[in-house]
Write a structure and sequence with these properties.
Radius of gyration: 20 Å
Number of helices: 17
Strand content: 15-25%
Helix content: 40-55%
Number of domains: 2
Strand order of the largest sheet: 4-3-2-1-5-6-7
Order of helices and strands: EHEHEHEHEHEHEHEHHHHEEEHHHHHH
Length: 383
Amino acid sequence: MKKKVIVLGSTGSIGRNALEVLRGLESDFEVVGLAAGSKAAELVEQTNLIRPSAVAIAQTDQLQEITSGLDYSPVVLNGPDALVRLVEEVEWDCAICAVVGAGGLAATLRAVERGGRIALANKEAMVVAGAILMPLAKRTGAEILPIDSEHSAVFQALQAGKRSEVRRVILTASGGPFRTFSEEQMDYVTFKDALRHPTWNMGPKITVDSATMMNKALEIIEARWLFDLRTDQIDVLIHPESIVHSLVEFRDGSVMAQMGSPDMRTPIQYALTYPDRLPCPSARLDLFATGRLSFHPPDSTRFPALRLGHEVASRGGTTGAVLNAANESAVELFRQGAIGFRDIARITEKALLEHDYIAAPTLTELLAADRWARNEVTRCPAC
């Protein structure tokens, strides 16, 4: 029987790639649910093409556009809880959680509660609530497999040995468009400049996070929870070619690297078909054409987000929720032109320093910390 799949965040970069992968796996997988926060026109187009049994959109003022645009009659869910209801009301075997930002936390949490396979691209859910999600997955039998290229690479490399034999994990980073910029040059970069990623084609928020290297800070925290690592077991290397997606060093000195062209379809498909490897539409790696692979230590002075990532991974508690929420709000202010590029990390760090820290928060307390950070950044971005 075909495995039933729901795609949360189907209109985003990861969601679109996931649907392309699933088209190539249609003999084994059936898409039974699609969900998006907004982008009604694109969601209608996807729905009419794929014809799932249910579709969900969070934006309440886009319901009419959905219902009028569909050429058949699936279940249509609408409102702030639409994604959660899709998870609850549709029968599925695998949930692709690809909603960007903390907005995907509730649906991801509900999917883990239900069990099954969770193909996780929403790193923010793990950053905010990894201490809740991972124990919950153990209780329900949910299988959380990462879609992020770096964490998928770690997961794949870990197959070479036992977890107890791991010395450290090395996450690679392209360095983004400002890898060689001085601090002074970064004072003048614009939102449009930050969207010019040298190797990856991603959504705007993730691309800005790559430029500040906040994405790597979030990945440090996610790796800590996904793979049950100490903070001192997680390192970062700048690798501009984006061919080696991450490495795992074992205690005998062996280093396993997962390599491939920078194409998100590979980790997406692996999360769906694991432990099997099937033909994939992703670009093939040509090492001869690549020519050389280079690695450099990161500069935490020009990119202070890396330091914040290690601090949050080590401290835990409410810090992940505050880091993520403050960064999301600061990125939006940068998009609006209200703050400069380097202000993003500064504002985020200020929120971390000033929030009321709770070491072992409940989900309610995590959500309250998230709201506080967003309000604080929006209220006084220049403070």
